[in-house]
Amino acid sequence: KNQVEQSPQSLIILEGKNCTLQCNYTVSPFSNLRWYKQDTGRGPVSLTIMTFSENTKSNGRYTATLDADTKQSSLHITASQLSDSASYICVVSVGASGTYKYIFGTGTRLKVLA
Amino acid sequence: DAMVIQNPRYQVTQFGKPVTLSCSQTLNHNVMYWYQQKSSQAPKLLFHYYDKDFNNEADTPDNFQSRRPNTSFCFLDIRSPGLGDAAMYLCATSRDGPGGPPYEQYFGPGTRLTVT
Q: In what order do the strands lie in the sheet with A3-7?
């Protein structure tokens, strides 16, 4: 069964600190993995997209890693800011050309405190 | 500059009264998606259009229908809303589907549906 699991479910950190969010997946065939940031009451916004051959990708203070062997990904946030408070969703795309499947994780809710 | 626009942002409807949510895009993308997201849950895909081809998810209730009259617009019709249909409804677009190159998926801000 295609599945994406994220941990932790929620996280509270102090402003300026770093944190790492985890995503484990059991998906076949794997196409690509995405991290989204979703502010409360808003639509998700893409942070990174990684294909099978990519190990790491950065977007400002956000760095995503992918280990296709262990089927794990992480999102590292450096020097957190209050505006980083949001849900972070890991999404894995499944299938070959002609199929359209995104498998969503349930997200990690991050709260950054001043 | 808004690229995926959803109207209205908040919608209140009565139990059993049909309601239509709308989505428009300025990206000229081939694929448009409708997701349902309930509180603290991941978005759940209801259906998507690849151009004019409609693709329904197997577990999407018949109560949910969709129309795509042209490339720019897509509508979600809920024929007889129940209390369990209260949720955030997200529209998204992508240039092509996830099976090909990793095109970005752009989400609208969502419509929050309340059923009374």
A: A3-7, A19-26, A72-77, A62-67, A56-59
Q: DSSP secondary-structure letter at A105?
A: P
pLDDT score for B100:
63
| Chain A residues in contact with B112 (beta carbon < 8 A) | 41
Q: Mutating which of B40, B44, B51, B60 best tests the A interface, going by the most A Cβ atoms within 10 A? A: B40
Residues ≥6 apart with Cβ < 8 Å to B31: A100, B48, B49, B50, B51, B93, B94, B95, B96, B97
For residues B61 and B100, give the distance between their C-alpha atoms in angstroms, rounded to a whole number.
Answer: 28
How confident is the model over B31-56, as pLDDT tens digits? 999 999 998 888 999 999 999 999 89
Distance CA A108, CA A88 (A): 5
pLDDT for A98 beyond 60: no
What are the tens digits of pLDDT across the range A33-47? 999 999 998 999 999
Report pLDDT digits (tens) over B66-109: 999 999 999 999 999 999 999 999 999 998 766 667 788 899 99
Q: Taking a C-beta distance cutoff of 8 angstroms, is the pair B55, B47 a contact? A: yes
The residues near A108 (Cβ < 8 Å, ≥ 6 apart) are: A6, A7, A8, A9, A10, A11, A21, A87, A88
B90–chain A nearest CA distance, Å: 7
